[in-house]
Amino acid sequence: MVSTATALRLDNADACIKCGLCQLVCPVLEVDPAFSGPKVLGPDWHRRFVAGERVTDDTAARCTFCQLCESVCPVGVPIAHLIAEHKSHLDHDPRSRMRDAVVVRPDVLARFPWLTRVPRQLAPVAGLSSTTRWPRPHRPRAASSDGGTSRVGTVGVFVDCFSRAFDGATIDALVVLLGRAGITARLVPADTSVCCGAAAWASGAPHVAEGRAREAARAIEADAGDLDVVLSVNATCEATMHGEWHDVFGIQTSVPSVSAVDWLLDTGVLAGLVERRRRGDRPKRLALHTTCRATVAGEGGADVAALEAVGYEVVQTELSCCGAAGSYAFKAEHAERARRIGSRVGPPAEIVGVAVDSATCALHLGDLWGVRATHPLVWIEEAMRP
Ligand code: SF4
Ligand code: SF4
């Protein structure tokens, strides 16, 4: 039985015209010929499934849920979402089941960030990779800066679970930039960890994704319902809130979420900061990796514009997907594949680092390429220091 959540998204499930385009863009297929590929694992599997054939293909678990296949399908088959459904019917060994029960709830995991300090030798016991770089706990400094000191106004800043536990630097950078413009940032949620549900979708647990998404939406309503906008820093969360929340679950919050970089550009806030600080530094060459989810959502252009506005020479990486895919690269059985996906191209020459608006992608690429990789907002804040 296809889950209710996914069923809403399966309108075009049987529309495949067998053009093969999805196969050409799949990053897993590029590095892993044994992977059955999007067409076989998505629409072909689904057709047999609804006809009553209860067959599954274990390689479905290797899909990163990048959604690049969906983005090129000429007839709109929800390929990645079908594969997520396929994953939910796979038989997993008990250790993987236990691990994935935790992995699909990263908001719960984020309440115990010290777990990443557990000795690496113990990782295989939990089905985790002992070679993948782990994040270090780093909470945002500003617990809440909504102290009524605003000169211009207050905006919400959505603190996703990973940022709350491990990527406080990005939230801090945004709060500092807003503060320099006289805008008060209110962290949303104020003091609890929530998840948009992206990790659960990617691991083939749409029903868990729906629960996480509804809880996150309630938290946004409760803590930011009186504001005009909530800014988000993570491309995957942003894509999930605009994609699955809306299209699959029918969730809409009264306050819209907008990419922080887009908002800084569109409102002229960034231009105002640049104008105040204009100085003639030699441009630094910075690579920009637009994540797969941001590419599929048609985003990435704002990051280029914002980084160039503050003086960087930006060179786009040629990587469609880095292989980090949230928790994917942390799982023992996917770690090597994730490295191969991210190593399809190397870093551009003579860069000071990489800007990437997903903290797990930044961790993965920084490790693979041996360069500093962090969120565009961190690079922007550094360039704008007085
Ligand atoms: S979602 Fe990405 S990894 Fe999965 S089949 Fe589609 S292109 Fe391949
Ligand atoms: S791109 Fe779409 S229509 Fe073409 S083979 Fe893939 S699922 Fe079928």
Layout of helices and strands:
Blueprint: H1 4-7, H2 21-25, H3 27-31, H4 38-50, H5 68-72, H6 79-87, H7 94-103, H8 106-109, E1 153-158, H9 161-165, H10 168-180, E2 183-188, H11 198-202, H12 206-224, E3 230-232, H13 235-242, H14 244-247, E4 257-259, H15 260-266, H16 269-277, E5 284-289, H17 292-296, H18 301-309, E6 312-316, H19 335-342, E7 353-356, H20 359-369, E8 373-374, H21 376-383
Parallel strand pairs: 1-2, 1-3, 3-4, 5-6, 5-7, 7-8
Helix pairs in contact: 4-6, 10-21, 15-18
The structure holds iron/sulfur cluster (2 copies).
Residues 25-28, 38, 63-69, 79-80, 83 line the site of one iron/sulfur cluster (SF4).
Give an overview of the whole structure:
- The chain is of the alpha/beta class and 386 residues long.
- Among the domains are: 4-87, Alpha-helical ferredoxin (Fumarate Reductase Iron-sulfur Protein, Chain B, domain 2, Orthogonal Bundle); 279-383, 3-Layer(aba) Sandwich (Rossmann fold), CATH 3.40.50.
- 43% of the residues lie in helices and 9% in strands.
- It has 21 helices and 8 strands.
- A 4-stranded parallel β-sheet has the order 2-1-3-4. The protein has a 4-stranded parallel β-sheet with strand order 6-5-7-8, sandwiched between helices.
- β7, α20 (359-369) and β8 form a beta-alpha-beta unit.
- α4 crosses α6, α10 packs across α21 and α15 packs across α18 (301-309).
- The chain is globular and about 65 Å long.
- The structure holds iron/sulfur cluster (2 copies).
- The site of one iron/sulfur cluster has 15 residues, from α3, α5 and α6.
- One iron/sulfur cluster binds next to α3, α5 and α6.
